[in-house]
Amino acid sequence: MSHKCRRVAVAQLCSSADLANNLKVVKGLISKAIQDKADVVFFPEASDYLSQNPLHSRYLAQKSPQFIQQLQSGITDLVKQNSRNIDVSIGVHFPPTQQDLLNGNDRVKNVLLYINHEGKILQKYQKLHLFDVDVPNGPILKESQSVQPGETIPDIIETPLGKLGSAICYDIRFPEFPLKLRSMGAEILCFPSAFTTKTGEAHWELLGRARAVDTQCYVIMPGQGGVHDLRDPAWEKQQHIIASADSPKRESWGHSIVVDPWGKVIAHADPTCVGPQLVVANLDHELLQDIRNRMPLWNQRRVDLFY
């Protein structure tokens, strides 16, 4: 292994509407990542919860701040117990602020947090591109009904793995965003996701490899995987909903991967495994620099024409 290698862990899970149980799964995977000597562990988007509909999401988002606080203290506890540092990137939700509500906007925020080994939040990136699509022979999903779009390109973060550019799920389909992150200095890009099975089967690996080749970056793709349990008896009782076998179901593609800057998948989740799992890979910065030196795309771009 090159002396410039760093170890990354990619967590795959199947979040439910039960935040307390999701937190337990997340902490267990962080503990495993520490045992596996990872420097940073990446979780999917919506690791705090998945909901039945926009109303349910607004209800659950009120519990997200507590989920985040407990996660922060959980990280510092695990670091102390194991005498080994680890940083955590994780997708969660924020409830609307008082100002949002005054402006008549009660939608939640889909956010990616970067939390360091001291439990400090170094970045909050709010998802820019929302998944409003009618997939052929698949689901109709309108994320904008329940989620506020972000307005800001995130700064590059200095991490134990190198310079990280943050994005979320549907952002991966807009190459100008990762190209911008690379221009800002990114060496690693992450796309925590909850891809549908239809779009995942068609485009998940293709998009990850394409963005890696476009940007000459490592691409880290933690995915939600499996059939989500969206039942929530307390909320259903409050809403006078009679639970039935026809309650909303959602399935995510999983297939979490790590792609190198040449577009090669260097680690992937086991598609036959049901339940949470962790994928570990070494990121070689000498390889990254070698690829960039041999094919100096950023010196050859026709910025006089295209930008």
TrEMBL record:
Record bears the keyword Membrane: no
Domain of life, source organism:
Eukaryota
Which keywords are on file for this protein?
A: Hydrolase
Question: Which Gene3D superfamilies would you find in this protein's record?
Answer: Carbon-nitrogen hydrolase
- CN hydrolase domain boundaries: 6-285
Q: What InterPro entries does the database record attribute to this sequence?
A: C-N_Hydrolase, C-N_Hydrolase_sf, Nit1/2_C-N_Hydrolase, UPF0012_CS
Q: Which Pfam families match?
A: CN_hydrolase
Name the chain's protein.
CN hydrolase domain-containing protein
Q: What is this organism's lineage?
A: Eukaryota, Fungi, Dikarya, Ascomycota, Saccharomycotina
Q: Which gene encodes it?
A: SUVZ10G0780
